[in-house]
Amino acid sequence: MPLTRRSFIKTGTVSLAALGLGTSAPDARPASGAQELRNLAAGVQPLGPEDYAARREKARRLLAANKLDAVFIGGGTNLVYFTKVGWWLSERVFGVVLSRKKDPVWVCPAFEAERAKELVPAGQEIRVWEEHESPYALIGGVMKDLGAAAGGRLGTAPDLRAFEVHGLRRALPGLEIADGAPVTEGCRGVKTEKEIAYMDLANRIIKLAYREGFKTLRAGMAARDLSGAIAAAAQKLGSTGSGGPQFGPNSAFPHGSQVQRTLAEGDIVLVDGGCAIEGFRSDVTRTVVFGQPSDKQRKVWDIVRKAQKAALAAARPGATCESVDRAARKVVEDEGYGPGYKYFAHRLGHGIGMEGHEYPYFVKGNTLELEPGMTLSNEPGIYIYGEFGVRTEDCLVVTADGARHLGGLEAVSIEEPFGAD
Fold first, then answer.
1. What are the DSSP calls for 244-298, one per residue?
2. pLDDT tens digits for 77-87?
3. Share of residues in the chain with pLDDT > 70 (%)
4. Using one digit for the tens of pLDDT, what is the confidence trace for 56-77?
5. What is the mean pLDDT of the chain?
6. Which structural domain, as residue segments, surrounds residue 59?
7. Is 65 exposed, middle or buried (0-12, 13-18, 19+ CB in 10 A)?
8. Residue 48 · residue 242 · CB < 8 Å
9. If you write DSSP's letter for every residue of 131-186 in order, what string do you get?
10. Which of 27, 63, 167, 320 is exposed most, by the fewest CB atoms within 10 A?
C-alpha cells in the first residue's frame, strides 16, 4: 500500500476554533486543550535499512553523473543521512567513503574500532589507523582499490572540516579533491514520500503547539513564558520543539532582540521555531497581536500574507528559486515597502530537511530550477525598526504540478493564525 499523508498522519479531528486574542488570557483549561494534546507521532514508521540503501544508490548515480569516483563524508548530518551513524567530531578523522563500485568503506581511529562496530552495519569494511599513521593514506588506499589512485576524482562532503580537506590534498597529490555537494545536496535536496510525511507531521505539531501557546497570552508575561508553553505542548504532541517569541518593537528584529520586554496591550507577538520527526524538521512563524490590531499592523500583516501566497503560486517544477523570491518581493514593493531588502530584509526562504537551514535557497541570483520533492521555507516579512515586524512562515514542498504548504493550518488573518486544512 503506498504511503500517503492520510495513512501516515492519523491525527483525528482537531478543533480549529478562533483563539480570541484579547487583553485577558483565553480559556486554556484542560477541558478545552488537554483533550487535543495527544501524541501525534505515536506509530510513525521509522526509516529502515532499505531507505539508507536507496539513498546510497542515488549517491552512486550522482557520482557517475558528476564524474566522481567516490565521496568522503565525515561526522555530521551527511554521515547520519547516508549511514544512520552519528559520530562526535574531534581532531581525529572518522568517516566513510561512498563510491560507484564498492560497498561503503569506513576510516576509523584504531582505538575507536570497537565502538564503531557497534554502529556500522554488519558486513561493511572498517579500515583503521593508529595514532602515528595517516588516515588520508587509508582513503588513498580505498581509491587505489577502485582503480582511481592516479587521476581519480574524490569528492568531499560540504561539511567536511577544512583541515581534513587540506590533509587530503597534501597526502594524495595524485587525486583531484573535488566538491562533493552535487552528491550530498543532490540526494538531500529532494525528499522521498516518507521524508515529506515526517515533515508534514513536524510542521503540523509545531503549529498546534503555537496555537496552544497563544491561549496563554497575558499582559506582563515574558517571552520565555510563551516559549515554555509552546515547548510543553509540542512535547505532549509527540516532539521536542519550541518557538522563539518576540514582543512589540522586538519583532522588528528578524532573528530577535536581546532587549527583554514583557507583553503589553497592542503588542505584536512574533513566534519562530520548529520541531522534528525522525530527524526531519519544521520551521514555522506566526504573527498575531495581543489585543486589538492597529490599522497599520493589519495592513502590513495582509501584505505579508499576500506575498506568501504569491510565492506559493510561483513555486512549481521548472521555476527558478530566484523567481519565487521575486514573486513575493514584488508584492511587498508594490505595496510601498521597498525597494529590495529595505523592509523585506532577507531572502524569501531556505531549504529544510534534517537541518533547519540547508540547500537550496529562495534568493536573487539562484537560478536552480525546482523539482518535485524539494522542501523550502516560504517566509516573507516586513520589519519596521522602532515599531514592529511581521513574518508569516510555512514550509512548502514542490509537487508534480505546483507546491503546497506542509502541515496545513495556514494563516487566515491576523486574528486567525491557523485556518482549516
1. EEEEGGGGGSTT--SS-----TT-EEEEEEE-EETTEE--EEEEEESSSPPHHHH
2. 999 999 999 99
3. 91
4. 999 999 999 999 999 999 999 9
5. 92
6. 49-188
7. exposed
8. no
9. TTS-HHHHHHHHHHHTT-TTT-EEEE-TTS-HHHHHHHHHH-TTSEEEE-HHHHHH
10. 27
Grid cell locating 75: 561526522
Which of 164, 188, 212 terminates a domain? The answer is 188
Which stretch of DSSP H or E encloses residue 28?
none
End-to-end CA distance of the chain: 24
Amino acid (one-letter) located at 31: A
Grid coordinates representing 351? 531549504
**Per-residue pLDDT tens over the stretch 305-340:** 999 999 999 999 999 999 999 999 999 999 999 999
- Same domain flag for 289 and 353: yes
> Can you tell me the distance from the alpha carbon of 348 to that of 318, in angstroms, rounded to the nearest whole number?
18
Which grid coordinates belong to 29? Answer: 483549561
> Contact at 8 Å (CB) between 130 and 94?
no
Are 184 and 208 in a shared domain? Answer: no
pLDDT given at position 35: 52
Residue 365 pLDDT > 90, yes or no?
A: yes
β pairing state of 95-99 and 268-274: unpaired
Helix H or strand E encompassing 396: strand 394-398
Burial class (CB in 10 A: 0-12, 13-18, 19+), 372: middle
Residues 139 and 158 placed together within one structural domain of the fold: yes
Tell me, what CATH number does 261's domain have?
3.90.230.10
